[in-house]
Amino acid sequence: MADKLVIVESPAKANTIKKFLGGNTKVVASMGHIRDLPKSKMGIDIEHDFEPQYINIRGKGDLIKSLKKDAKQAKKVYLATDPDREGEAIAWHLAKILEENKEKITRVTFNEITKSAVQKAIKSSRDIDVNLVDAQQARRVLDRIVGYKISPVLWKKVKRGLSAGRVQSVAVKLIVDREEEIEKFIPEEYWNIYAELKDEKSKKTFEARFYGKDGKKQEIHKKEECDEILENIKDQKYIITEEKKGERKRTPAPPFTTSTMQQEASRKLGFTLKKTMSIAQGLYEGVKIPEKGTIGLITYMRTDSTRISEEARAKAKEEIIKIYGEEFYENRYYKTNKDAQDAHEGIRPTYIDITPEDIKEAVTKDQYKLYKLIYNRFMASQMKPAIYDTMAVTIKVNNYDFKANGQNLKFKGFMTLYVEGTDEVEEKQEGMLPPLEEKQEVKLQKLNPKQSFTEPPPRYTEASLVKALEEKGIGRPSTYSPIITTILDRRYIEKIQKQLSPTELGKVVNKILTENFKDVINVEFTAKIENEFDEIAEGKEEWKKMIREFYGPFEEEVEKVEKELEHVTIEDEVSDVQCEKCGRMMVYKYGRYGKFLACPGYPECKNTKPIIQTIEEPCPKCGGKVQVRKTKRRRNYYICENNPTTCDYISWNKPKKGEKWEESEKEEIEKEIKTTKRKKKTK
User: Fold this and answer.
1) How far apart are CA 302 and CA 258, in angstroms?
2) Dihedral angle, C-alpha 535, 540, 545, 549, nearest 10 °
3) Which burial class, exposed, middle or buried, applies to 217 when counting CB atoms under 10 A from its CB (0-12, 13-18, 19+)?
4) What are the backbone dihedrals phi and psi of residue 112, each rounded to the nearest 5 degrees, phi first?
5) What is the pTM of this model?
6) Annotated catalytic, 300?
7) Which entry of 78, 238, 284, 300 is annotated as an active-site residue?
8) In angstroms, rounded to a whole number, what is the distance separating the alpha carbons of residues 56 and 99?
């Protein structure tokens, strides 16, 4: 019989904590949530003030019995679930399950799984924070109501089994809106003129760019304008009229929040959000390291704060001075976003003296990569800025101005260790200009006029969508990964070479939701609701009052939409493909995998067929049409229409004119197609 019982969510976390507590303490895992709303019905009693009807999760009966038995035998029960709203809710549900032992139940939280943090938490246990629980309940109940009330509209008008989510639908809307921007975008022509110039003294060449006329910036929109400038500067002297030298500092990025960690892991490591969070969870809960046992390597990974403890700051100082020298250290504090829940620190290593190289052999490749990213980002955040010598010159040609800039890295500072990534295409870094002086003439080597066209905004990637959601106040650290995973799983969006694009199904669903539920499926409402959850968490608002205020107008809107759509039929788009079984013209339908052709004579005629997409470039082997198809893993491949009868062309890559086909791809693609087909057959 143990004096103390500590309940955490996962076995990994339990193993890490065990060694920090005495032998008279038992540590067990609840395996995540133990109670939830039922899957078979809404589970919200609307008539009785929106009371949630929680049930024990199926399959957890034996675990619940075991937890009750352990709690009965212990003198004190510590609920040590994660230190956020979700963790607080799990603790609250555990307390409800162990109701008969409520006198000895207490709550403990820690931001890192280290001996000092765990022991300190046990000594300073507290009651369950009902405000945090209520904020989580409000989110769960509101999302359940929205989903259960709106989804049937999609069943009637599009396809049974579809579902709508409050936050997920807004994320889909952002992606659809961006796609429409891209489709409507009209490129505009513009020109740049680059001059390759030579400094006769140093014999060095450098590049200057056309700026304008008489000191005023001028944009070049047409070839005629460009030709006129070129004519006016023909055979003219290039004279330096202004020369400025200076210094530029580049400061390090703050320690990671959940959002910035997800973005950087996507950009630098190619990780999906789901993968990043899974690996981070493992690093937080504990990894087995030789001679050290199981240790938690990072602080809690669901946070929107960049705050760092003074203890960690002191350790970072010690390590930076030891490795790089005092001139590289700078004590830095970072402002946390005003909307951040500042309960936790930013994400950092728990043991500053354990470097990525120290654990490389003990962890998986992906764990090492993410730990290194977190470790280096944190250490760099406490280092001096990088310093550049800069130089800018203006060159006069007739009455036109060209400008040139150069910079040289003088002191690397934090960049010795880490440089933040970006979603934008970075321009190449300029080198330092030659030593130029005012009134000096430089010699023209070559003029290079360049025509360009404005480009549409890029599609979202997982990283840039997370950034947009965060900037617009949609969701919170724990929700970004589930939001994107859900809309990918529902086939409302698809990932094409890391870019998120709406499917035909996603466009149809978005159109119905935004046209009929515009008060709920919009960015401003979703951000407002998020702020109300924060108010509940802080004890400033009562959660059922918030639901009551939301439900009345929402229910009226649902009833109104149902009446309006009752006699409205979304007409199927008729194709130019004739059904070979009954002769009717087939129509476009939407299924789980997007658009397909179906006979309108259903149920008499049940004929369906996939839509064959082709490209303009002919088959490089026989000149036939090339079709675009997808494996069950949603990966595009290109295949000749004559395959397999008279041509065997098949490729992962879109064929290009004159490009030689790599026949080695054929076996790999055919293997994936056969594998996915075989899997489907054995289900």
Assistant:
1) 5
2) -50
3) exposed
4) -145, 150
5) 0.83
6) yes
7) 300
8) 14
